[in-house]
């Protein structure tokens, strides 16, 4: 009898191993959305220098696929030329000693690549960029990409460029103070998830999403145009849930919290708030009428309500203010957050990072 039980147990174990996996591992604990299944890399590689190139540099680290990258140095890596990522990479900015790690001056590109995880990295392009067609982070035609707790400021073309991107998540990040075109993010193809991000002082594209999209628990401040599709954007579905739009000094029309969204679009919108009066107090009113879009009675994406959890728009504001961006929070991010906390009385759309008055010609000092 014991032998029979042992044989049955062995067969059962074999059967379980042969079953197709119904749940893939997440990119990291707490990852959400369509980019959360990015696999990243597994081969350990440490960045040991702030030099732009050479052995142990960030450029060296991302030059080969399959790497899981850590940092034994902190500070800014000043890029002399754009950096192109390989596929199957994990970039663990949170491993850098305090005050953290950042890159400045040129674009980081994941164009055409797949399975990339980027966490706790500061990406600040600014006027050191010599090509006005480049963005702070470019993932055009990429797939399975997640950015989490990143800080992206001073983007030139777009802050985040994701035209043709498939299965993307940008979460818990700061996307602020774009110069040049003064755009936040541009994503096409999708599907995409924008979760718990802080969008600050952009002319438009927070984001521009020509894709099936989840837009949940975001805060958009001092916008001229907020969530945008563009009337030529095609036919897509959008779950817009528990976000807070807050007008600022540069906001010419608070009603442009949703911009260029026509009846080709289908939208499930609930729990969104708009604070339009610029009075220094968080006192928004319901904002769930999204252009002339077709109204959905339930989310198009089955996970949208579970991502929200219990966070209302007001709770999302508090959480995003406390937690968004790379950690530990540095001079630039502290400036961005304090601007938002003025609740309508401070903020500007800029053309040069130096106009912030921050150290290091506006880039801040790490």
UniProtKB/TrEMBL annotation:
Recall the GO molecular function terms of this protein's record. lyase activity; metal ion binding
Keyword Signal found: yes
Q: Which UniProt keywords apply?
A: Glycoprotein, Lyase, Metal-binding, Signal
InterPro entries (alphabetical): Pectin_lyas_fold, Pectin_lyase_fold/virulence, Polysaccharide_Lyase_1
**Signal sequence region:** 1-25
Kindly provide the name given to this protein in its UniProt entry: Polysaccharide lyase family 1 protein
Native organism: Lentinula aciculospora
